[in-house]
């Protein structure tokens, strides 16, 4: 497999060297009213002449001018629209290798109409937009995203997979960095999954997937970056959007959201609030077989756990942009979420001898009350020095996560005849407080139309205080017991981290054929951790400092109207999560513990990617990466604490060695008819692990096939529908061999109330096939699991757009689309 991949790669590179290329095309022009006065903030959409599909869009600046790039060779026309004006089309034009740019004569818009027509234009965006450096998923283009949360939306994105624990991987590799409006979330693992589950799909506008981001982005994330862009209203005047939804799976769920926007003169005010009630369940069926050194069975452990969750998700955002001058804009954004949860888990475990005869039975009950609270503030400034594109951006951010977690455990132990032997009571109080402050400065300087320089600085400081206070009880119930501290589990972890970074990136068009972009990023990292002791444990501390360089290189060209090629290389890093460094044992259940590893080192990846785009409809990508000091979950067996009889599984992260990853993916967009469009994505991924685990050399490899199909249908002006699904074949995820899994969704939508409103009905996981299953072997232990959950859900959602747009569109001076859409902060 590897030899074939290298042969294909070398052939591709040889084709690059022998061919000639050019940068993607662009179109520019000016939009005015009938008195020839400039219209700022008008929307210009590039449409393919063949089928009127959107190929790109952008706004006009304060002088009415626009420029839209990244266009493939082909025939197009423009659609111009603005609040209070009737839309208008340009004459068709063509971009080619000989003429990659076009200037369109001024388009004059007549007064009248209603701005809500332009909202309909944006709603017709394709589900998937394939660009040379990223893939864009337009969330509202999918009917089956109605009623979903952000994590469920990501499951449908090309190349993205989400495992049973909410961990996100991209093209078969974990280590994805999640950005929200260009800002890092600074969360990982369960904390990140909980945050994404609390975000409603109705809040999302786009999902941008970058497998090899440029130097201006943080180097974290060995498999790339996923940037979730939230909705922002671009209309002038007062307007808003209301969404009401309900879903029924095993439990009833609701989701509601409201966004308001007022924009006039020098001020733009915006706000949004969403609320979701998500009741669900998750079942885990686990089997473990413990082996002797000769391979014979030592003991058998069977466990069945049913977890029920009741969640409320509250998300709020308030912000203001103020236009000091036509060149300078300042903004402030407050945002946060408050997501309380009440969870209950009932767990029955059967401990058996080698012949399968039950020795004892443990019935566990776990009641959990969690609260995830986040607040953040962003201050941003943008200054344009002139009209050439020279500009300065400054972002200051402060983020705080204040989470609480109270747990009540009870273990009731029975003999094989269900005669009670003893009761164990445990109470856990586990608050954590994470705060992050960051400052980021970016400067862009075009030297000419062919050459542009980008450079910047960033500094961030993070602090994480996590406490775990455990108490044991000697009574028969949580309300009738005396609690005493359990110092074998109690701990207090204090972690601090500082990252300083600088980057420079140069984009140059070598000639009419070739384009190149090269960047270099430097990051300095220093962290220290302190594990406070208790009467039974001593204090322990660790610290580390290291410097890293991250180069990136991009090449692009067009062989003809039909073929576009690209190649890129980049180096990236994954740092351990805050909790992954905490050395103490965390109680999961009587036979399962989690633990951090203070000696965990960061992992580094070198990534190579080659891309070919055929007629703008078929994108083929070859990728290869090698990761050193790879860290992954390690499962270990240890005797139960306090001298108890039996064994516990300890789960922690460890550096296990090296991973090689090679793959090929294809994304095909078809439009067989005006009423029918289809997007098909397929990815084959090959992974090989080598290194040491449990003092033994490991050498394992496996392939994995993943595909995603989405079919969109339009019936007349008001009806639309969708049929979609995905499938993942059997594959290796670290130590776990995961069985095949897939899902099928369907939905229908209708525009109502003169196209100001819509009704959407969908069902997700129709066949109830999204059930994680797998098995693993470790340290003389064989384990298998199955985890059904509340994934089959029917949703009904009503959406209504309202407002009173301003009609005097040319009386205001406004920013271009990057600023109109931006709640900008550090990346």
Automatic annotation (TrEMBL):
<feature type="domain" description="Outer membrane protein beta-barrel">
    <location>
        <begin position="383"/>
        <end position="800"/>
    </location>
</feature>
<feature type="compositionally biased region" description="Basic and acidic residues">
    <location>
        <begin position="815"/>
        <end position="827"/>
    </location>
</feature>
<dbReference type="InterPro" id="IPR041700">
    <property type="entry name" value="OMP_b-brl_3"/>
</dbReference>
<feature type="region of interest" description="Disordered">
    <location>
        <begin position="807"/>
        <end position="827"/>
    </location>
</feature>
<dbReference type="GO" id="GO:0030246">
    <property type="term" value="F:carbohydrate binding"/>
</dbReference>
<feature type="signal peptide">
    <location>
        <begin position="1"/>
        <end position="21"/>
    </location>
</feature>
<protein>
    <submittedName>
        <fullName>TonB-dependent receptor</fullName>
    </submittedName>
</protein>
<dbReference type="InterPro" id="IPR036942">
    <property type="entry name" value="Beta-barrel_TonB_sf"/>
</dbReference>
<dbReference type="GO" id="GO:0009279">
    <property type="term" value="C:cell outer membrane"/>
</dbReference>
<keyword id="KW-0472">Membrane</keyword>
<dbReference type="Pfam" id="PF14905">
    <property type="entry name" value="OMP_b-brl_3"/>
</dbReference>
<dbReference type="InterPro" id="IPR013784">
    <property type="entry name" value="Carb-bd-like_fold"/>
</dbReference>
<dbReference type="Pfam" id="PF13620">
    <property type="entry name" value="CarboxypepD_reg"/>
</dbReference>
<keyword id="KW-0732">Signal</keyword>
<keyword id="KW-0998">Cell outer membrane</keyword>
<dbReference type="InterPro" id="IPR037066">
    <property type="entry name" value="Plug_dom_sf"/>
</dbReference>
<keyword id="KW-0675">Receptor</keyword>
């Amino acid at each position: 497999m590897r030899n074939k991949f290298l042969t294909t790669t070398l052939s591709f590179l040889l084709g690059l060297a022998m061919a000639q290329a050019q940068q993607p095309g662009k179109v520019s022009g000016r939009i005015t009213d009938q008195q020839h006065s400039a219209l700022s903030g008008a929307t210009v959409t590039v449409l393919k002449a063949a089928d009127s599909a959107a190929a790109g869009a952008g706004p006009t600046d304060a002088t009415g001018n626009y420029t839209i790039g990244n266009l493939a060779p082909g025939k197009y026309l423009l659609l111009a629209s603005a609040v209070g004006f009737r839309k208008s089309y340009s004459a068709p034009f063509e971009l080619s290798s000989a003429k990659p740019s076009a200037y369109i004569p001024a388009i004059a818009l007549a007064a009248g109409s209603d701005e809500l027509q332009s909202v309909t234009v944006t709603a017709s965006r394709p589900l998937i937009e394939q660009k040379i450096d990223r893939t864009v998923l337009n969330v509202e283009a999918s009917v089956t995203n109605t009623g979903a949360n952000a994590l469920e939306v990501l499951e449908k994105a090309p190349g993205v997979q989400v495992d049973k624990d909410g961990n996100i991987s991209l093209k078969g590799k974990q280590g994805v960095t999640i950005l929200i409006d260009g800002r890092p979330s600074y969360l990982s693992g369960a904390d990140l999954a909980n945050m994404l589950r609390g975000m409603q799909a109705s809040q999302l506008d786009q999902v941008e997937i970058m497998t090899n981001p440029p130097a201006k982005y943080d180097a974290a994330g060995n498999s790339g970056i996923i940037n979730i862009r939230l909705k922002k209203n671009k209309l002038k005047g007062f307007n808003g959007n209301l969404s009401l939804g309900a879903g029924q799976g095993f439990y009833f769920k609701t989701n509601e959201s409201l966004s308001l926007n007022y924009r006039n003169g020098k001020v733009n005010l915006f706000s949004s609030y969403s609320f979701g009630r998500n009741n669900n369940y998750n079942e885990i069926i686990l089997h473990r077989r413990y082996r002797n050194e000769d391979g014979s069975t030592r003991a058998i452990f069977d466990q069945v756990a049913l977890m029920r969750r009741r969640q409320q998700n509250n998300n709020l955002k308030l912000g203001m942009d103020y236009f000091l001058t036509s060149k300078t804009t300042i903004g402030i954004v407050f945002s946060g979420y408050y997501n309380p949860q009440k969870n209950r888990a009932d767990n029955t475990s059967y401990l058996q001898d080698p012949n399968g005869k039950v020795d004892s039975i443990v019935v566990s009950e776990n009641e959990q009350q969690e609260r995830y609270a986040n607040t953040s503030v962003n201050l941003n400034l943008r200054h344009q020095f002139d009209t050439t594109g020279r500009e300065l951006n400054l972002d200051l951010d402060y983020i705080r996560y204040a989470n609480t977690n109270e747990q009540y455990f009870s273990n009731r132990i029975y003999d094989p005849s269900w005669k009670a032997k003893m009761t164990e009571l445990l109470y856990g109080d586990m608050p954590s407080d994470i705060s992050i402050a960051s400052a980021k400065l970016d400067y862009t300087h075009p030297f000419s139309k062919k050459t542009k320089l980008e450079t910047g600085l960033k500094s961030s400081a993070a602090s994480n205080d996590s406490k775990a206070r455990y108490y044991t009880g000697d009574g028969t119930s949580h309300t009738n017991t005396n609690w005493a501290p359990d110092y074998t589990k109690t701990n207090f972890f204090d972690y601090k981290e500082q990252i300083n970074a600088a980057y420079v990136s140069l984009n140059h068009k070598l000639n009419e054929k070739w384009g190149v972009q090269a960047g270099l990023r430097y990051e300095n990292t220093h962290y220290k951790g302190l594990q406070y002791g208790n009467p039974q444990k001593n204090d322990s501390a660790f610290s580390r400092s290291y410097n890293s360089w991250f180069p990136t290189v991009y090449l692009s060209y067009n062989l003809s109207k039909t073929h576009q090629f690209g190649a890129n290389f980049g180096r990236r890093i994954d740092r351990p999560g805050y909790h992954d460094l905490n050395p103490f044992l965390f109680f999961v259940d009587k036979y399962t513990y989690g633990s951090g590893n203070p000696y965990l080192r960061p992992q580094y990846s070198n990534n190579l990617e080659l891309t070919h785009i055929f007629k703008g409809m078929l994108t083929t990508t070859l990728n290869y990466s090698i990761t050193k000091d790879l860290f992954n979950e390690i499962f270990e067996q240890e005797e139960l604490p306090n001298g108890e009889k039996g064994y516990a599984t300890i789960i922690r992260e460890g550096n296990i060695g090296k991973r090689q990853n090679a793959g090929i993916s294809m994304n095909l967009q078809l439009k067989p008819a005006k009423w029918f469009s289809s997007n098909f994505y397929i990815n084959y991924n090959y992974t090989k692990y080598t290194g040491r685990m449990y003092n033994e050399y490991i050498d394992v490899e496996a392939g994995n096939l993943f595909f995603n199909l989405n079919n969109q249908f339009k019936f007349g002006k008001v009806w639309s529908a969708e049929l979609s699904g995905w499938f993942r074949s059997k594959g290796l995820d670290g130590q776990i061999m995961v069985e095949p899994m897939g899902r099928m969704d369907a939905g229908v939508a209708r525009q109502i109330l003169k196209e100001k409103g819509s009704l959407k009905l969908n069902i997700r996981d129709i066949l109830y096939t999204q059930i994680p299953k797998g098995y693993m072997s470790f340290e003389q232990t064989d384990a298998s699991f199955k985890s059904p959950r509340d994934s089959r859900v029917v949703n009904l959602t009503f959406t209504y757009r309202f407002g009173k747009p301003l009609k005097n569109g040319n009386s205001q001076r406004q920013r271009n689309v990057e600023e109109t859409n931006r709640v900008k902060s550090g990346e």
